[in-house]
Amino acid sequence: MDRCEGPARLEWWANRHTCLASVDVRVTVTADDSGWHTTASLVSPLTGEDREGWDLLMTASPYCGDRRTRQPPPGRKRTRR
């Protein structure tokens, strides 16, 4: 299995001129016989308004799926971690 870790910035853009939010994350990418798998964790915890904004953006994102049931968004397969 191959593995790579590093810092990254997760950003939400409304359009090419307006960034709604950005957070620093630590990304881990692994590759094995079943394919590529990625995870990201926040570098520092979110509090207050930042947390509320994060929750809103995660709920609205078509890429994040349902955080309560941990189901992937429609049309995407769930990968094992």
Characterization of this structure:
This protein is α+β, with helices and mostly antiparallel strands. The chain folds into 2 domains: 2-44; 46-76, no CATH class. The chain is 16% helix and 46% strand. It contains 1 helix and 3 strands. Strands 1-2-3 form a 3-stranded antiparallel β-sheet. The radius of gyration is 14 Å and the shape is elongated. The two termini are 13 Å apart. The mean pLDDT is 81.
What is the fold's blueprint, element by element?
Elements: E1 2-15, E2 18-32, E3 35-42, H1 48-60
Antiparallel strand pairs: 1-2, 2-3
What's the short story on this structure?
By secondary structure, the chain is an alpha+beta fold.
Keywords:
alpha+beta; 3-stranded antiparallel sheet; 81 residues; 3 strands
Count of spatially separate domains: 2
- The tally of helices reads 1
Task: Give the spatial strand order of the biggest sheet.
Answer: 1-2-3
Strand count: 3
SSE-based structural type: alpha+beta
Per DSSP, what share of the residues sits in E-state strands of 2 or more residues? over 45%
Determine the N-to-C terminus distance: 13 Å
Low-confidence stretches: none
